[in-house]
Amino acid sequence: MMRTSTKLLDDKQMWRRALARAHPDSGGSHEDFVWIQNVREHVCSGGVNQATSPPPPPESWIVHEDGRESFAEVADFGELTSKALYLVRQNRPHPIARILRLLEDCVSLPRPRREESRGARHKQCAYVAHLAGLYRKHRSEWYSLCEFLALSHRHLAHFITKLKEEQA
Hints:
Elements: H1 12-22, H2 30-44, E1 61-62, E2 71-72, H3 77-90, H4 95-100, H5 122-132, H6 136-149, H7 153-167
Antiparallel strand pairs: 1-2
Helix pairs in contact: 1-2, 5-6, 5-7
């Protein structure tokens, strides 16, 4: 039986290539990217032969299976918007700050819609990054910030509308 020679399982260059292929910016999905990161951590930490299950998510967070970011069950749209604007006011000029400033005229609706209580889709985050012209190094910061701020579906829809208006 012939065997193909390959690199070791903990080869950094091979993991970097695999992660790059799975990244959403290069056509992969968010779930694939997170999964392969977990596999890398498992393999490189010496746990190749051990079967372990990931820890359960905190009870106050919902992880949507349809490509949405984690979102708190009792998240208040107005508070999340204020948190994002507060962050903008505390930091120096940055390409991402320009995007977040678009929330200044985004107010909660008198009768909250479902979009205010659902997490943003990863595709929405990527589309906003595209419309804003973020370079690759800022895109990963943007994705992390969307998750950190727990931006809702409506927040991202607002960004998309405003960025399209700027381009028109």
